[in-house]
Amino acid sequence: MFHDKGNLNFTFIRQSEAGKQVDFRKYTLPVIEFLGSVGVKASFEGKNDLKIDGFKISGNAEHVHRNRVLHHGTILFSTSLANLRNSIRKDKSCYTSKAVESNPSSVINLNEKLNIFANITDFRDNMMNYFLRTILNTTVYELSHEEIVEAQALAVKKYKTWEWNWAYGPGYTFENSFQINGNIHRLTMLVKDGIIRDCTLEEKGQFLPVAKILIGCRHMVNDLQKIFCEQDFIRSKEEIYNFF
Predict the structure, then answer these.
(1) Whose CA is closest to 106, among 164, 154, 59, 69?
(2) For the chain, N or C: smaller number of CB within 10 Å?
(3) 92-112, pLDDT tens digit by residue?
(4) Model-level pTM greater than 0.85?
């Protein structure tokens, strides 16, 4: 998911009957109804998208733990669409993974269709007030000082770490062919938990020793750049991007 200050995130956490936890239509319906109440007709389309006039404004995901479901969604209100488009890798043919594929769609900001809110905070507050009025047994819960301190500590310990933000997710295989200094290289890497577990790098059919040095290294630009500089293999980030 792409996030910036113009992208509003919402979450519903509910107890649910076993086998019926995953229900994207159910958990996006309150958002659709709120948008309808302010004059915007949104519809649920595909697997997990909300669209207006065929343009995507919201992507959604769900995580299930036993009989509890966490539904997480985004709303493009005034996000930088240029930055969003530039962050998407257009050619993913080098990667092979069991991760769920995203569905590229034409997107639009909600404020292009809705000009009654001064800013994203005003939009958020109105949506919250709508939920409080229309969803039964809904009240505002104020976090205690102790809970805030605990949440901040958890963020530092877990949710701001490299392991959570980069390494957590399905493993993948990366394959690429590229040219450096007139030589054609063929690269294959197996990455799991963000770490290069296996790597082969061939130049004109000869295995290069530098590939073994990459095993155990984090699959990150700066980490590879440091190793390559030490081995005097490649130095520029433009060349290192062949490994990503």
Answers:
(1) 59
(2) N
(3) 789 998 776 666 679 999 999
(4) no
